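ASSEMBLY PREDICTION REQUEST
Request ID: AP-0331
Submitted by: J.K., bench scientist
Number of chains: two
Total residues: 889
Priority: normal
Notes: Please return the full assembly, not individual chains.
Input sequences:
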Amino acid sequence: VTSYAATELRPDVVIVGGGPAGLTAAIELKRAGAGTVLVLEREPDAGGIPRHSDHLGYGLRDLRRVLSGPAYARRLAAAAMSAGAVVRTEAMVTSWTPAGAALVTTPQGRLEVTARAVVLATGARERPRAARLVPGDRPRGVYTTGQLQNLVHRGQDVGRRAVVVGAELVSWSAVLTLREAGCRTVLMTSALPTAESYAALSFGGRLLTRTELATSTRVVRVIGRHGVDGGGVEALEVEHTPSGRRRTVACDTIVFTGDWIPDHELARSAGLEIDRGTNGPAVDTVLRTSRPGVFAAGNLVHPVDTADVAALDGRHVAAGVLRWLDRPSAPAPALRLLVEPPLRWVSPNLLHAGDPPPARRRLLLWADELVRRPTVVVRQQDRTVARRRLPWPAAPGRVFRVPSSVLDDVDPTAGDVTIGLAGPE
Amino acid sequence: VNEPVFDVAVIGAGVVGAAIARELLGSELSVVILEARDDVGDGTSKANTAILHTGFDATPGTLESQLIRRGRELLAAYAGRTGIPVEPTGALMVAWTDAELDALPGLADKARGNGYDACVLVDADEVYRQVPALGPGAMGGLVVPDESIICTWTTTLALATDAVRRGADLRLAHRVDAIATGDGSTTLHTTGGAIRARWVVNAAGLGSDVIDRMYGFDRFTVTPRRGELLVFDKLARPLADRIVLPVPSALGKGVLVSPTIYGNIMLGPTAEDLDDRTATQTSPAGFAFLADKGKRLMPRLLEEEVTASYAGLRAAIDRSDYLIEVSPALGYVLVGGIRSTGLSSAMGIAEHVVDLLRGAGLRLTERHALPDPPRMPNIGEAFLRPYADAERIAADPEYGRIVCFCERATAGEIRDAFASDIAPRTLEGLRRRTRVMNGRCQGFYCGAAVGELMSAGLERTAAP
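STATUS: Completed
Returned structure:
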């Protein structure tokens, strides 16, 4: 239900989401003379997830420097504005009109935005405890990394003893944030038999010595102080799955990390085709979605890679948007890129003959099991298109990157393409 | 402090206690409401299936049947006046076995016995036409066109707000621990001090048998029946545009799939009898049971994300009807055994209780110049909400400042909640008034901002 007394805006390009991907797309589009570019960001400040991540490690691949999350976010937002993009904050797209215009709520009123091209860059979030179906009490003090970092960034209190559920890249970021807030991580748990993350990360490695990491461990239930809503956390019960051995870990804070899901609500409500692997909109190597003139970039289409990779997606999508503005034409029907276990998804996931390669000439994939020395096998019907041994592992909890040249010999007439892994021979 | 002697003390600020207090205050009376918890509607009233029942499947001739019919009529009208969100979705009861199919005509007859004539028997094709997402195996159904969904949180809050505006003295965090009956008045010893009243109404829900025993009765026992619910993402909402009911069995009404007034889909409840009256945890067995049921009822629903899980306790008692009795000599009314139908029947119960009190000698002088019923903030998805209301945002930019993105709750609504007659004291209370943090991200984005607004709001309400 909506009332239609909205102010109409008609930019050339509207970008939904002012995180690294959206802001970088805006910068690139303005530099290339794309006309008017409007970025709609629903938070009070542009910059996306890095805004609250108060540690170093941002900007390496896109800006060629090492920044803290907040500094990186500020830099991108400032660059977008100085490039001439209009960045509106506290501006949330709430729905689409039947004609495809975005209906937007802002404190300055409702907007109806009709653009020649739309870029969705709405990012991804971590599955909260409820969506993971973790039973037990519902006390205060149970967070995702996103909420934790926001709380700490704002100087709110987060307890003294934490259990971090997950042991992937973002989980270590949570441990760092907790430490900064004076909260000790007494246990990290992972459902997998090995730690997912880069154990060799300089900061992570040091912390590893102080934090117990329980592998092959699942969460049984949350225990609240009074057994009622609103009390604090008292403990987390976990189970070592091979032995069935359970223990109760006293803590006052629980952080559920990783387990990403793209923020795909606007993509779905726009009727875009959704990739069953990523749960984000299906995209081709140009980052076109199933609807002509609608593009998608960043962690919405690969939940999740690092902020700099999302930003470089933004740079990549700008080229496709510029071509569309110059000559709007829908591509030929696509081949589908599919994966086999232990791979969960691949992005991009559609192929059009004659298109340029994907961003950074990389396919991004997600693996559910560790394969230390993987051989990537690309098949089309019964034909092996490519076998490529890679010197880096496919590991759960972070993106597995594969050179897109493995697709060079794909036959555009031979149907869907399947990517699988063979272990070491 | 010299406390006054109230004409009536109502124990319990759930939907039933709030409705009774409000109804009493249609007369020239002084009324105090004693609530053990720190908000109204924070016990069984907050976690039910939020259906405004027709009473089609009650047992004909019972008090429950009579009061659901009357209560539903009153509440439907009251919802219109106060803005409590109600959606007349209708319900479809689905038979999955021969025995269930055979039971449907009897249920249609039972509905007629309850004065409800609109039920229609339909075949399997019609079942799938109405709800295409149902799993395979449905054999037929019974359409109940007038079942509706309602906002249970707003209902209790509206009735309690109305009672307060009519002059009720609402005492939160006042748990009754002991009762002393005396000559002409009763003293209720509470965690917030002693309260005296000439009449006491026991609408204590899960605790109603405990209160009743304080008077020396041994009439009934409340068995907390835990019901766990899964709430699915709003993107699942197109799968069910009406309530899908199972055919009832001995253990209650079974697991249903229902749209919620907030635009989600709900699956549940389980039914598990417990001893512990505070056991509102969710359980692995409950989740597994619901997942299994859900996969058969509506397989596509289980492919969507779960937004929240709840466990509520229903106050089941060891008898088959409401237990509403007056003890004139003690100045005491028991309102017990009000199970899940209490939301629909509450205003009927209130009318009935006031009639009983009049019969028992309470002098009721009609009050003139009653305040208008409150106009409640709309948190129903099917109606215009502030974030989408261009005129409202133009008049007050705070309604255009979305704080909780998933539920589109605005800074203006949060501010209003703290400025309301019954301001929230906890985050849970704020969630029930605004929907803030109730959405798919569960605070990933807005948790910290809401925490700040919560602290600021509590400071404002604490200030004189």
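REVIEWER COMMENTS: Residues 307-326 of chain A form the longest helix (20 residues).
SIGN-OFF: pending second reviewer
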